[in-house]
Specification:
The protein is α+β, with helices and mostly antiparallel strands. Helices cover 32% and strands 19% of the residues. It contains 5 helices and 5 strands. The protein has a 5-stranded mixed sheet, sandwiched between helices.
């Protein structure tokens, strides 16, 4: 069953905290910050078990701009925010999200990450990965003299 949860629901927060593939962008505070800053309403579409506990979900914002159709975005101003779903459950979640979109009269859904079966997933998103050495001194030795000077000054 797909339900609409508030972005700050304790059930979503607990689910995100326990999920091994959750990113900082899934945290309720991230969506709440974007929502306050840009005025887009934030919510979660979650598949829940009989007791209301999420088993999959995606944080979304409803983006409304003058003279443009409403759309749901996961999440605007965010590099990547794929749905949290177990392998094999992607297409079922995509179908449920699509049905919710149609029922709500929303023009489109943009997913910031892969979701099999969802049109427009990952559109225009870029992921940057930076490997850091666990040895702080080794990282610092790679800095140019100017960068080390600016770090000291800061």
């Amino acid at each position: 069953m797909l339900v609409r949860l508030s972005i700050d629901s304790p059930e979503w927060a607990a689910f995100v905290s326990a999920h091994d593939r959750a990113l900082p962008f899934h945290q309720p505070a991230w969506a709440a910050t974007i929502s306050r800053t840009y005025g887009f309403p934030a919510f979660v579409l979650a598949r829940t078990d009989g007791g209301g506990t999420p088993s999959a979900g995606i944080p979304l914002m409803e983006v409304r701009r003058p003279f443009e159709p409403r759309r749901w975005v996961s999440l605007p101003f965010t590099d990547i925010c794929p749905p949290l779903v177990e392998p094999g459950g992607e297409e079922e979640l995509a179908r449920a999200v699509e049905a919710a979109r149609v029922d709500a009269g929303v023009e489109s859904v943009e997913v910031a990450g892969p979701l099999a079966g969802c049109p427009g997933d990952g559109l225009g998103r870029v992921v940057h990965v930076l490997t850091l050495d666990p040895d702080h001194d080794a990282v610092e030795r790679k800095f140019s003299a100017a960068v080390r000077r600016n770090v000291r000054a800061a």
